Model the fold of this input.
Amino acid sequence: MAPHKQRLTILGSTGSVGVSTLDVVARHRDKFEVVTLTARSRTDVLFRQCLEFKPRMAVVLESAAASELQRQVSQAGLNCEVRCGVEALEEAASLPGVDTVMAAIVGIAGLRPTLAAARAGKKVLLANKESLVTAGAVLMDAVRVSGATLLPIDSEHNAIFQALPRGYAAPGASGVRRILLTASGGPFRSATPRQLEQVTPDEACAHPNWAMGRKISVDSATMMNKGLEVIEAHWLFDASPDCIEVVIHPESVVHSLVEYIDGSVMAQLGNPDMRTPIAFALGFPERIAAGVEYLDLARVGALHFERPDTQRFPCLRLAYEALAAGGTAPTVLNAANEVAVAQFLAGALGFQQIPALIEAVLSEIPSRPVSSLGDVLAADGIARECAGDWLRRARPRRQAAAS
Ligand code: NDP
Ligand code: MG
Done:
């Protein structure tokens, strides 16, 4: 009998993580079968993936995109059901015939499908950090109740997972003292405050070490990405904020570290290539080849570490504050950040105004307890409205300053 193949749903298959996932899958056709692929609207990319991986179902967000994809799929004679909408994404994530779900949608848009996969007890490969940031308590609870397996894809958390004695262990347990999250510092690590004022979207998206989607690239440039990752580490590893330290490491070779009470520090190293954490999680608990270039330490030569500067990069401080406030504060932080980044990418907001908007929204909305998805979505909505108000107030000031 042929060995059972792992059956996969890839949420956000057309994005940077989704494409890297399919790259690894294509190297191991004997081990994996793609059941469902999903995207928001880029039907051209999704259709090409359907031709190559022959999924049984393809889901897009809107009906116009679904009609276009349906036309292409029918013309090519593919046996692939085309669906649309958030409910269809949730269904794709919880299909009984699916073993593993790669959660690689960007933003809080990924929350409902990711939660559906967790509730259905799947092996969940979590790239979509925003779902843990916004709904950590709800998602972790769903994992516990259903017995789902949650494996981090974010390279830092994947590194920590590998450096911990047996996956998840809270600092304090197993002699763990601290988690050290590395951060490249992004493209503006050495920029002056004046230079930061002038940053354009394309400059912000030109990350020195990683090729990623535009939203996470801007998050890396503001260091909000590291802030979101601190909150993500809190939920994944049950770590209090004072046990999570951020260290700037410009080479992105040491992906993160775990410090033990006896002074030992365990790190995971590798070339910066998302296919390593993706292959680790796809193959878990076995190791499979990822197609990456192996690390040549002599060629790397030197590795550098420094402390982060929260004066120039206030987003990191804001994320720590939101985590300390708890409840809906991280949801509010995330919503304000999503609005700010979208505005920045559209050329409607300055780079330095991203933290200003987030700080204003956080200070206006008191944190409330979270006990359900409804609490999270309500807080997200209120924060987006508040961010909209801030933008309406700020715009005339910006226009006056420009003229
Ligand atoms: P991309 O922007 O490259 O891709 C996002 C994917 O999600 C695309 O498939 C996109 O479809 C889809 N999508 C976007 N919005 C929606 C929506 N509203 N509903 C349904 N689908 C949607 O992002 P990345 O791959 O860079 O990042 C994905 C996630 O992984 C993020 O949470 C990010 O923080 C995390 N991550 C990414 C890393 C990286 O190296 N890129 C590293 C670590 C974490 P379409 O193409 O049609 O727009
Ligand atoms: Mg990361």
